[in-house]
């Protein structure tokens, strides 16, 4: 990012920028720079950081070339602010400080105040509260000086002096010259519908008050006052002063100037009230555990408010935890002691949550049309948290329950809106005039119609279930994952056709030990470990060390094997710590309703047997007990058969605490110390064993299942497909539910089949093999089988032109690329996005599927380009891989998919895998055998899942390839 510095910008300033320094361009330059700044603002609203950066850099170069310090400072400050928000904190702060230095000797204006607010926001987020308050104080004093009467009077005095000079100059005449005719321009103004403007003398003698003179600036200054108040509220919240922050909320409406201000103020007010509600939970003996508890929506099937609360008030003194569970890694954190309490939720607690919900709900619709995608994401995050907590306590507070479809809509709309806005930007760019008709007026009617259809009509709450969920094929399971703004919890939504969504809130640190010295494993720790692994893997994959030295090759393999083991451990920790017993949400198994009902009865009997609350109720209270939602029961049976060498003790304990929490929140009190979890686990294990044995006895031919992951913008970097619980499943990923809808509606089924699958013709394809000429081994493996494909166009050992790449993608059903990277060096990303049609793409180069994260902006990279082009499915790698292993994987996938004949390329030996179990040749041969025995049609995502085992390094290389899109079959 070094090119963002002023010095670098000066060096890169072109001759065309320097030409603008002439006197003739003095009035034009400010308009150009401000226009570029406004363009960057427009693209920032759509979350498109590359465009934001580009236009600001252009404005910075122009301002630097002409020596306009004030304009340069404004643009540099904006660039630094956006860079901070995109994640480049150090470089961004440096730019903002440089912008401050540029105007150090100039009078402070509102742009200087904005600059200080940029710094204040950064310092507050970094926990540097003193520096943040100082910057807010400077911004506030700057604005107060600008609106002070003395400053306004000085402006009026300057204008009066300028007016007098203008009058005197207009009175000057040349000797012997004829009186000049009045300028026609002023006479022509009478045809305007607006009132005729006064002359200079008339304006000077008018009765307008002095305070009206700077009216143009009043709007901006008052708006900045609102920004300062919001900055002060945020600072108070960061230091824990919720009461002080709440008191400042009363000042916010005094400085509201437009709809955007209303949205931002409502968002901040909602955060304050939500935090106040959570603080009230701390003193509650039951709901104090909500911040660290897993919550589901829905959780119960029915709720009877006529519970015998009086019987639940008495409980035994706390007892020690069961010995077996205390030994578990997650035991300490889950050893929570809940005291019984009265049934009803305190009014203040519910009041704060409802007020927070109302604040944000009232502005949600306007936010989706007028606010940036970052703000919409933030609103969705806050609203999702509020609704999840309300869903947990609503029954206890006798309030209406939260519909799961409403909650799912608010969680998904941010991702859908960001993709839609970028698609609209691409459509608008396609409508812009080209070189030959530059002076034609743009025809934007079609674009406006498309905008209304995509932004408003297609993301409506009333039709969300029908248009986005019920159209999902019956054999598909959609799992949407959303990371919270604080990165401390994941919201997982399971979507199936014909059913309301099932949503889980999983606090990532809920299993941490109460021992403060024990290391935690949250999102930041997991991502840091992954980034370190990828960095080391990329270095080792391209290391130029001399492998001819004795032992060098063995050392290289050992380093790679160590990284492979670390990645396996990371994925295991992600599954065990982040998901725990809730990993069953990824289960693809279709449940048998009759057998599930039997298991439900078994679970109820087990709970009746062991829970103190059920024992106190006796037979007379059986009808009033809480009935769990069937999706909660599916979490139990989705863990699998305990007989399959599957240790379910810890996952079952995780689910049992979840169930006990549900009962607690709905009035059925049980002190954790009184519950014999060991005995419950034993009984449930037997019930699960009987369930799965019955399923196996009644099992018929089961259709192929697929899982589609809808990933949050901060979760694309993880190889979720290789989690132990789903590593053998057919899994693909997409950036939004809208992308899934588009692919379902645009699918082209096989004309000879009515199974509803998406097909690609094996006889209509193109390939680019070894375009750089240095991948001789790859060319040797794939040249012959590619040339044998009927009806294919193959480009071998030469660089394709962009026109050829466009033809390969637009005119074919399948496109294979075997080269370096994603092929982006041969076709621009803009060109890909504008394609009218895009083939199924297999890009088998290093990091071809990696996305660049941009903080609060949207991630960008090759997968997003292909998704915007309408690509049904794209296979690519998340990080760099070694040639031979990825070649082996690619050949295996193409063979299992059905494109290549049943032949596997020879496997090279590895010093690491000799004698190892399930590694190397033996495991690869087993995978090869499975592929040869498979006679039925296999989807691309299923072929990828099977092909991972062909890699020598199952995780370091095998986990890198992922599929963006939906299942595609060959015909």
UniProtKB/TrEMBL annotation:
<dbReference type="Pfam" id="PF03568">
    <property type="entry name" value="Separin_C"/>
</dbReference>
<feature type="region of interest" description="Disordered">
    <location>
        <begin position="173"/>
        <end position="214"/>
    </location>
</feature>
<dbReference type="InterPro" id="IPR005314">
    <property type="entry name" value="Peptidase_C50"/>
</dbReference>
<protein>
    <recommendedName>
        <fullName>separase</fullName>
        <ecNumber>3.4.22.49</ecNumber>
    </recommendedName>
</protein>
<dbReference type="GO" id="GO:0005634">
    <property type="term" value="C:nucleus"/>
</dbReference>
<dbReference type="GO" id="GO:0072686">
    <property type="term" value="C:mitotic spindle"/>
</dbReference>
<keyword id="KW-0159">Chromosome partition</keyword>
<feature type="compositionally biased region" description="Polar residues">
    <location>
        <begin position="200"/>
        <end position="210"/>
    </location>
</feature>
<dbReference type="InterPro" id="IPR030397">
    <property type="entry name" value="SEPARIN_core_dom"/>
</dbReference>
<dbReference type="GO" id="GO:0005737">
    <property type="term" value="C:cytoplasm"/>
</dbReference>
<dbReference type="GO" id="GO:0004197">
    <property type="term" value="F:cysteine-type endopeptidase activity"/>
</dbReference>
<feature type="compositionally biased region" description="Low complexity">
    <location>
        <begin position="185"/>
        <end position="199"/>
    </location>
</feature>
<feature type="compositionally biased region" description="Basic residues">
    <location>
        <begin position="914"/>
        <end position="924"/>
    </location>
</feature>
<dbReference type="GO" id="GO:0044732">
    <property type="term" value="C:mitotic spindle pole body"/>
</dbReference>
<keyword id="KW-0378">Hydrolase</keyword>
<feature type="domain" description="Peptidase C50">
    <location>
        <begin position="762"/>
        <end position="857"/>
    </location>
</feature>
<dbReference type="GO" id="GO:0006508">
    <property type="term" value="P:proteolysis"/>
</dbReference>
<feature type="region of interest" description="Disordered">
    <location>
        <begin position="905"/>
        <end position="933"/>
    </location>
</feature>
<feature type="region of interest" description="Disordered">
    <location>
        <begin position="301"/>
        <end position="323"/>
    </location>
</feature>
<feature type="compositionally biased region" description="Low complexity">
    <location>
        <begin position="313"/>
        <end position="323"/>
    </location>
</feature>
<dbReference type="GO" id="GO:0051307">
    <property type="term" value="P:meiotic chromosome separation"/>
</dbReference>
């Amino acid at each position: 990012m070094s090119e963002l510095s002023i010095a670098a910008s000066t060096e890169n300033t072109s001759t065309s920028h320097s030409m603008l320094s002439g006197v003739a361009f003095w009035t034009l330059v400010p308009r150009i720079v401000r226009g570029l700044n406004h363009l960057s603002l427009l693209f920032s609203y759509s979350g498109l950081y590359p465009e934001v950066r580009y236009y600001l850099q252009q404005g910075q170069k122009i301002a630097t070339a002409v020596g306009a310090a004030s304009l340069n400072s404004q643009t540099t400050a904006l660039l630094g602010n956006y860079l901070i928000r995109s994640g480049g904190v150090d470089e961004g702060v440096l730019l903002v400080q440089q912008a401050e230095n540029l105007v150090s000797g100039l009078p402070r204006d509102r742009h200087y105040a904005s600059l200080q607010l940029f710094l204040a926001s950064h310092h507050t987020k970094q926990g540097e509260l003193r520096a943040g308050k100082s910057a807010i104080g400077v911004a506030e004093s700057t604005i107060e000086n600008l609106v002070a009467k003395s400053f306004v009077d000085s402006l009026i005095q300057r204008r009066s002096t300028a007016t007098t000079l203008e009058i005197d100059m207009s009175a000057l005449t040349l000797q012997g010259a004829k009186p000049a005719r009045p300028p026609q321009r002023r006479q022509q103004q009478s045809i305007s519908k607006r009132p005729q403007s006064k002359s200079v003398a008339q304006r000077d003698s008018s009765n307008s008050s002095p305070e009206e003179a700077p009216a143009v600036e009043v709007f901006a200054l008052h708006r900045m006052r609102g920004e300062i108040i919001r900055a002060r509220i945020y600072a108070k919240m960061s230091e824990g002063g919720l009461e002080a922050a709440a008191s400042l909320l009363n000042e916010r409406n005094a400085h509201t100037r437009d709809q955007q201000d209303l949205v931002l103020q409502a968002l901040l007010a909602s955060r304050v009230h939500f935090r106040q509600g959570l603080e009230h939970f701390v003193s509650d003996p039951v709901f104090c555990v909500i911040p660290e508890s897993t919550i589901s929506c829905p959780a119960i099937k029915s709720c009877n408010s006529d519970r015998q609360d009086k019987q639940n008030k008495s409980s035994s003194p706390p007892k020690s935890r069961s010995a077996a569970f205390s030994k578990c890694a997650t035991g300490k954190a889950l050893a929570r002691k809940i005291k019984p309490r009265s049934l009803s939720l305190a009014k203040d607690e519910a009041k704060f949550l409802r007020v927070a919900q109302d604040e944000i709900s009232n502005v949600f619709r306007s936010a989706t049309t007028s606010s940036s995608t970052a703000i919409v994401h933030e609103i969705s995050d806050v609203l999702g948290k509020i609704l999840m907590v309300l869903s947990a306590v609503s029954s206890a507070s006798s309030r209406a329950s939260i519909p799961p479809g409403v909650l799912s809509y608010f969680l998904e709309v941010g991702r859908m809106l960001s993709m839609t806005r970028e698609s609209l930007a691409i459509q608008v760019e396609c409508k812009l005039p080209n070189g030959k008709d530059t002076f034609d007026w743009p025809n934007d009617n079609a674009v406006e119609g498309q905008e209304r259809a995509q932004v408003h009509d297609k993301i409506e709450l009333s039709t969300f279930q029908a248009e986005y969920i019920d159209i999902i094929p019956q054999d598909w399971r959609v799992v949407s994952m959303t990371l919270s703004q604080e990165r401390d919890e994941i919201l997982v939504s399971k979507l199936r056709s014909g059913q309301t969504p099932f949503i889980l809130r999983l606090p990532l640190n809920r299993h941490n030990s109460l021992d403060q010295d024990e290391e935690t494993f949250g999102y930041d720790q997991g991502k840091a470990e992954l980034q370190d692994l990828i960095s080391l893997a990329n270095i080792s994959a391209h290391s130029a060390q001399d492998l001819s030295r004795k032992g060098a090759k063995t050392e290289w393999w050992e380093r790679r094997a160590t990284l492979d083991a670390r990645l396996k451990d990371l994925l295991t920790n992600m599954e065990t710590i982040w998901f725990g017993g809730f990993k069953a949400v990824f289960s693809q198994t279709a449940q048998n309703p009759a057998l599930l009902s039997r298991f439900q009865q078994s679970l109820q009997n087990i709970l009746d047997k062991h829970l103190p609350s059920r024992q106190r109720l006796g037979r007379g209270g059986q009808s009033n007990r809480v009935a769990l939602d069937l999706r909660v029961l599916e979490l139990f049976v989705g863990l699998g058969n305990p007989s399959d060498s599957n240790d379910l003790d810890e996952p079952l304990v995780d689910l049992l605490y979840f169930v006990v929490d549900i009962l607690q929140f709905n009035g059925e009190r049980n002190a954790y110390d009184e519950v014999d979890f060991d005995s419950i686990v034993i009984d449930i294990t037997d019930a699960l064993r009987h369930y799965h044995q019955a399923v196996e006895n009644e099992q018929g031919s089961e259709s192929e299942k697929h899982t589609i992951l809808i990933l949050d913008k901060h979760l694309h970097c993880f190889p979720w497909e290789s989690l132990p619980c789903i590593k053998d499943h057919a899994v693909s990923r997409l950036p939004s539910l809208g992308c899934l809808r588009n692919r379902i509606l645009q699918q082209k089924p096989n004309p000879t089949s009515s199974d509803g699958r998406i097909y690609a013709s094996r006889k209509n394809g193109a390939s680019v093999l070894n375009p750089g000429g240095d991948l001789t081994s790859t060319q040797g493996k794939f040249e012959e089988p590619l040339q044998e494909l009927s009806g294919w166009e193959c480009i071998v050992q030469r660089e394709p032109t962009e026109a050829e790449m466009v033809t390969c993608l637009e005119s074919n059903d399948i496109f294979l690329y075997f080269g370096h990277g994603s092929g982006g060096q041969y076709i621009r990303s803009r060109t890909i996005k504008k394609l009218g049609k895009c083939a199924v793409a297999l890009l088998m180069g290093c990091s071809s599927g990696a996305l660049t994260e941009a903080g609060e902006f949207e991630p960008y990279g090759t997968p997003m380009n292909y998704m915007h082009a309408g690509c049904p499915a794209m296979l690519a790698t998340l990080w760099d891989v070694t040639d031979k292993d990825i070649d082996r994987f690619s050949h295996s996938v193409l063979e299992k998919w059905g494109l290549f004949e049943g032949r596997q390329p020879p496997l090279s030996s590895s010093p690491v895998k000799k004698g190892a179990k399930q590694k190397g040749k033996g495991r690869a041969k087993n995978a090869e055998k499975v592929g040869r025995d498979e006679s039925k049609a296999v989807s691309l995502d299923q072929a990828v899942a099977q092909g991972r085992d062909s890699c020598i390094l199952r995780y370091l290389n095998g986990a890198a390839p992922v599929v963006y899109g939906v299942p595609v079959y060959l015909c």
